[in-house]
Amino acid sequence: MESRGWQRKDLLGLEELSKKEIEIILENARSFKEISEREIKKVPTLRGKTVGLLFFEPSTRTKLSFELSAKRLSADTLSFSSASSSIVKGESLLDTIKNIEAMRVDLVVIRSSSSGAVFQIAQQVSMGVINAGDGCHEHPTQGLLDLFTIYQKKGRIEGLKVCIVGDIAHSRVARSDIYGLKKLNAEVVVCGPATLIPSQIEKLGVRVSYSLEEALKDADVLNILRIQKERGVDCQIPSWREYRQQFGITRERLKRARKDILIMHPGPINRGVEIDSEIADLSSSILEQVNNGLAVRMAIIYLLANR
Amino acid sequence: MESRGWQRKDLLGLEELSKKEIEIILENARSFKEISEREIKKVPTLRGKTVGLLFFEPSTRTKLSFELSAKRLSADTLSFSSASSSIVKGESLLDTIKNIEAMRVDLVVIRSSSSGAVFQIAQQVSMGVINAGDGCHEHPTQGLLDLFTIYQKKGRIEGLKVCIVGDIAHSRVARSDIYGLKKLNAEVVVCGPATLIPSQIEKLGVRVSYSLEEALKDADVLNILRIQKERGVDCQIPSWREYRQQFGITRERLKRARKDILIMHPGPINRGVEIDSEIADLSSSILEQVNNGLAVRMAIIYLLANR
Amino acid sequence: MESRGWQRKDLLGLEELSKKEIEIILENARSFKEISEREIKKVPTLRGKTVGLLFFEPSTRTKLSFELSAKRLSADTLSFSSASSSIVKGESLLDTIKNIEAMRVDLVVIRSSSSGAVFQIAQQVSMGVINAGDGCHEHPTQGLLDLFTIYQKKGRIEGLKVCIVGDIAHSRVARSDIYGLKKLNAEVVVCGPATLIPSQIEKLGVRVSYSLEEALKDADVLNILRIQKERGVDCQIPSWREYRQQFGITRERLKRARKDILIMHPGPINRGVEIDSEIADLSSSILEQVNNGLAVRMAIIYLLANR
To answer: Does one domain contain both B252 and B161?
Structure first.
């Protein structure tokens, strides 16, 4: 592990990271991935450090991934959700976090439904802050694990053609992916129903396509976004069946794609909607992404705690 | 500790275990029980291993017992319940568990309200799976701790007469107990209201009695099942008072039983319904069972993780 | 660290502690505070011990503080709340705790909405019990961290004039503070609306004032209590605005107080009600109290576990 060149206190988004910083994270992730394959999957690196996990939205993989990452570095973890906390007594999120900081917690991982909330918090505390997803804004560790998965599978990112399909408008994953991919010089096409593509998205350096067939042509990587029922997306698409007909990833549709196309999805998946079960189970790298998420999060916690 | 002779990846039920396998677990439990009585109740055996705790039904003692067992072996634990997880986003249980496996969790402990769900999951993952209770099917660690308690208290199981009283129909504890006791050559009588005795129960090798007095005669062990209000059992018994009159364990009723009868209950108890407070507090082995549960679960986690 | 002179199994309230016992806790807290400022904030003192955390009311800082205190002493922690436990199956609190004791948990920390419940439990178990707040009765670790903060900031407690303002009637913090301050020979004035001052409070050795101006005169320490909306206090005060006008701590009001007055609040704060934001953020010791809470709780856990 090597933290030279890393200066930041926080990991808030890929928009603000330099190409060099992204590369430092990916290099460290490679070392940490090796640890997860050992018999004893634990290193004493962060013994005596504390990582707080503050998830204000439901989460399985992201929360568990951060918790396990911290534990495998021998850090202690402290979890809490809004339901069991003083936030039910009307305390502000910032006051809660200031309290946690006063307990000499070294890093906090925050998931919030409010875009930008994590940025504001980071400016007001001296401990490190990791954004685990803020509203429709960014989900930088997902973006980084996607980059790491592409890098591990394809050997490079520069020059690859990456197609992101689905609800671009509400997806913090899409935004983080786009920032990262563009910084590493990939070509990005976003594809989905017109109602789910933000009007100014080309400003991020991506091409827009409303035809999945066209977008998939020559793509090296296909990243399928989740239709987020829990964000009320239902009303912006005609029906689930129609969505699947136009943008669902099926075996039939993939026949016209490259044979070595890398298929990714941030999970949790809606089987038979944006992705068919046989593609998810047999041809995708979804579980590899989950495994890589651990390595990437270990790298980030390590870098921020050893700054 | 000695894991020779243990081959299984999972602990799913006592129905499938051989007599030899049960004996390996009980022998290991004896060693681990000794550790729990030390000043420093922890061994480094499973350092760097991770045990996931997935409880989809309310639980105090079983969840805490597994969590503490794992921690006393120096394993890391990861908990989650359905309420805080992606299952609220519609993810399937199997997808959730596949994700956990992708994070290189070594063992998962699952409690589910659905009979058989844990078996199906175990077949689809390569990590070890422990059934912590599935619907009305089996609760193998409770069965094993009951066997261990009888063994510790009576010095043997073979040839003992064991009476199980209560709601046999809905009790996963009863089923696991019966499988285990029969394999170790105990004699088993089940007793309860006709509405709560399954019609084919004799096929498991037990005798049925509808009279508690008759069933208790010469019994070496009395295992009292909980009336599970939360499973809607109320409508199958005339009234709580009448249940107590016919099947509740009172001082009066025990006068005609053997003086050295071992009284057990898997908990949580309904005081004044299936068991009177003075029996529970002064004459039962209920808390000894809880203590033994820790030893048995340490043994099982140890055996599965060192396979 | 030094536990000589400490005999008690439990920490239930400041009412029962001697001056000497309070001093032992404060001396140990000073040592533990130093550990929290180290790079590696962890000592192996309680390796192999288990601390159970049973919070039956919402809590952020107290629960996290206890959890972190235990972890920094290298103890294992076990958490549970009523929502996820067998208490939803109707099990009594005492039965739940007897079960936890049977698992050889060394200490339990209990928060309960019922005044006196923690005392009753402590009498029935042989493991150590720490009261983390019971109804309107006592909150001894808050009382002790308040004493510790005064001691750290003022160098002494004897002879200081301490003003406690707010809802004295419902505040377990006020009661614990008063017991501790009087034992250490401070002078205490309580101040608030007549509806929120208990009629017999002078029996505890405090003076009552209904005028904040008068009470603040010459005060060395001002402890501002939280208006606990969640306890239905709203109906006992005319309006929040009126409360602020009479008893809220504002810059204006503090102009007539001593310049070196120490301003404390147990949190969580209601900004603009009992305390103005600028006072809370710029002139108070609130976060210092949170930090001291960790040291005090480490001291208490250490003393009880090493008895």
So the answer is: yes
Query: Does the ipTM surpass 0.85?
Result: yes
The answer to whether the Cβ–Cβ distance between A90 and C287 falls below 8 Å is no
Do C166 and C178 meet the contact criterion of CB atoms below 8 Å apart?
A: no
pLDDT at B66 over 70: yes
Looking at the domain assignment, is residue B11 inside a domain?
A: no
**pTM: predicted TM-score of the whole model, two decimal places:** 0.94
Interface check A49 vs C, CB under 8 A: yes
Question: Which residue in the set B65, B72, B230 is minimally distant from C89, CB to CB?
Answer: B230
> Is A262 strand, coil or helix?
strand
Run of H or E including B131: strand B128-134
Residue A180: strand, helix, or coil: helix
Residue B12 belongs to some domain of the structure: no
| Per-residue pLDDT at C111 | 94
Q: For residue B287, what are the contacts with CB-CB under 8 A and spacing of at least 6?
A: C98, C99, C101, C102
Query: What is the Cα Rg of chain B in Å?
Result: 19
Confidence at residue C57, expressed as pLDDT on a 0 to 100 scale: 84
Q: Are B219 and B164 in contact (CB under 8 A)?
A: no
Q: Are residues A133 and A212 in the same domain?
A: no
Contact between A131 and A153 (Cβ < 8 Å): no
| Same domain assignment for residues B271 and B294 | no
A103 to chain C, any CB pair closer than 8 A? The answer is: yes
The range of the structural domain enclosing residue A43 comes to 19-139+290-305
The predicted pLDDT at position A39 comes to 86
- Measured between CA atoms, the residue of chain C closest to residue A305 is C39
With CA atoms as reference, report the closest residue to C219 among C246, C172, C253, C180. Answer: C253
Based on the fold, state whether residues C239 and C301 are members of the same structural domain. no
**Domain containing residue A96: CATH number:** 3.40.50.1370
Question: For residue A296, what are its two tokens?
Answer: 């990437």
The reported pLDDT for the residue numbered B234 is: 63
Angle made by CA atoms B293, B297, B301, in degrees to the nearest 5: 175
B90 CB near a chain A CB, below 8 Å?
yes
Task: Classify residue A269: in a domain, yes or no.
Answer: yes
Buried b (16+ CB within 10 A) or exposed e, B257-287: beeebbbbbbbbbbbebbbbeebbeebbbbb
What is the separation of C-alpha C65 from the centre of its chain, rounded to a whole number of angstroms? 11
Probe site for chain B from A32, A60, A152, A265 (most B CB atoms < 10 A): A60
Contact C278, C251 (CB under 8 A): yes
Residues C107 and C147 in one domain: no
pLDDT at C303 exceeding the cut of 80: yes
Question: Cβ–Cβ of A294/B86 closer than 8 Å?
Answer: no
Q: Which residues of B touch C124 (CB under 8 A)?
A: none
Other chains touching C, judged by 3 or more CB pairs under 8 Å: A, B
Q: Residue B95's CB: how many other CB atoms inside 10 A?
A: 22
Which segment of A206-215, A222-231, A291-300, C243-252 scores lowest on mean pLDDT? A222-231
Assess whether A175 and A272 both reside in one domain: yes
Q: Is the pLDDT of residue C307 over 70?
A: yes
* Shared-domain flag, residues A35 and A133: yes
Q: Please give the structure tokens belonging to residue C283.
A: 């002139």
Contacts 24+ apart (CB under 8 A), B201-204: B201/B168, B204/B175, B204/B178, B204/B179
Q: Nearest chain B Cα to A65, which residue?
A: B103
First to last CA, chain B: 13
Report how many domains make up chain B: 2
Note whether residue B1 is domain-resident: no
Domain co-membership, B159 together with B264: yes
CA count, 13 A, side-chain hemisphere, C182 = 21
Quick one: B255 exposed, middle or buried, by C-beta within 10 A (0-12, 13-18, 19+)? exposed
Burial class (CB in 10 A: 0-12, 13-18, 19+), A246: middle
